[in-house]
Amino acid sequence: MTTATAAALLEGGRPSDIPVADDYPSEFSRGVAEQVANGSDLGPYVIYELKDAIVVGEIGGAFTEPGTVEIGYAVVRSRRGQGSCSN
């Protein structure tokens, strides 16, 4: 997530530096944006949908104790349940 995206979300707006889904931001986006200043190697990162070339959510992680990472993600409602895995 760029600092410009984070700033827009923290101001209650939508980012203008990246294309996003119509219902972005998610209910968790503002909280995720607050983590951008921490500069963690674990994110937050945006989730980008290749098919429509838009951001549909965020993913990131945090160390909860030495050697243990907790991963969290959020996807906007309109794009949930449509994923697939490919190798």
Identify the notable features of this structure and list them briefly.
single chain, three-stranded antiparallel sheet, 87 residues, alpha+beta
What would you say this structure looks like, in words?
The structure is a single chain. This protein has 2 helices and 3 strands; from the N terminus they run ααβββ. By secondary structure, it is α+β, with helices and mostly antiparallel strands. The protein has one domain. A 3-stranded antiparallel β-sheet has the order 1-2-3, with no helix packed on it. The longest helix has 8 residues, at 3-10. The protein is globular, with a radius of gyration of 13 Å.
Question: What's the layout of helices and strands?
Answer:
Layout: H1 3-10, H2 29-33, E1 45-49, E2 54-65, E3 68-75
Antiparallel strand pairs: 1-2, 2-3
Question: How would you sum up this structure in a few lines?
Answer:
The chain is of the alpha+beta class. Helices cover 15% and strands 29% of the residues.
What level of helicity do the residues show?
10-25%
Poorly predicted regions? none
In DSSP terms (H or I, runs of 4 or more residues), the helix count works out at: 2
Radius of gyration over alpha carbons?
A: 13 Å
Structural class: alpha+beta
The share of residues in extended strands comes to 25-35%
Query: What's the structural domain tally?
Result: 1
Spell out the helices and strands N to C: HHEEE
Number of DSSP-assigned strands: 3
Sheet with the most strands? 3 strands, antiparallel
Mean pLDDT: 88
Q: Span from first to last CA?
A: 25 Å
Oligomer: single chain
